Amino acid sequence: MKCHAIKSRGFTLIELAIVLVIITILIGGLTVPLSAQIQARRVAETNKTLEVAQDAIMGYAMAHTCSISCNGAGACNGGSCDGTICNTYCAAAFAQGWPQATRRYYLPCPDTNGDGIEETRAPENCPQSHGNLPWVTLGTAAQDAWGNRLHYSVTDSFSNRSSGFRSSDPGTNQVCDSATGGCASGNLASNVPVVVMSHGANGWGATSIHGTTLAAPAGTDELENAPTDADQRYVSRSPYKPADSSPAETAKEFDDQVIWIPTTLLSSRVCPIGGCL
């Protein structure tokens, strides 16, 4: 009986090359969805952070008030609110049969020095109407999912601790879907007391948790949301990632996440039945 030797044969270079190409294609196919999933998770986390901030701002208002009391003749009888406001309220209360005592609620000041604490009023107004969300004061997250501070803008009269706000008071923030024509092309919300915003994944215009100011936005809509923009107009729209690096495409990039608190929501959550008088 003859024994035949079994010859072993390795892979040829062509076969190895084909295997490597297949592995590369498979890895590439897995990497793109994974990065998209990570980005989607960060967007969702930031949305949740913004919602928590919104609730914390309204919770702050519930705990921070000035008081008004009136005498039977419709004149101010004391309290911590501004005297002129107190007298105006008491006269109206006497004429309309409102309650003879009330409270006025006010909102937190922005953080402008990076310590997370709302700035000191001087004497009753905030030093600035916009800055970082005062996360230490509110007890919320210090940053979005990309490690940048949240932007916070508040109407001055709503954060004044000697007057507080009424349900009928207008806010000064405006939210639109495009910065074109000074937000004239699509107005989403007017007279908004509060806007809270993340500068998104690209972080353009944001302040990092290390206090570094990141590069300024290139697009018109993100420039409208930049802290360096002097007005209180903001853009909220669907995100757009440039198809290429051309100036025209880069100018359309947008990934900011914006929420706002309208006066109706603020009043319904903070004020007693009947509204803030």
What is the structure about, briefly put?
The chain has 277 residues and is an alpha+beta fold.
Descriptive key words:
3-stranded mixed sheet, 4-stranded antiparallel sheet, alpha+beta
Describe what you observe in this structure.
- There is one protein chain.
- With 277 residues, the protein is α+β, with helices and mostly antiparallel strands.
- It is built from 6 helices and 9 strands.
- It starts with 12 loop residues before the first helix and ends in a 7-residue tail after the last helix.
- The model has no long low-confidence stretch (mean pLDDT 91).
Separate helix tally: 6
Read across the widest sheet, the strand sequence of neighbours is 3-4-7-9
The residue fraction in helices comes out at 25-40%
- The quaternary organization reads as single chain
Distance between the termini: 110 Å
Please state roughly what percent of the residues sit in beta strands, choosing from under 5%, 5-15%, 15-25%, 25-35%, 35-45% or over 45%.
Answer: 5-15%
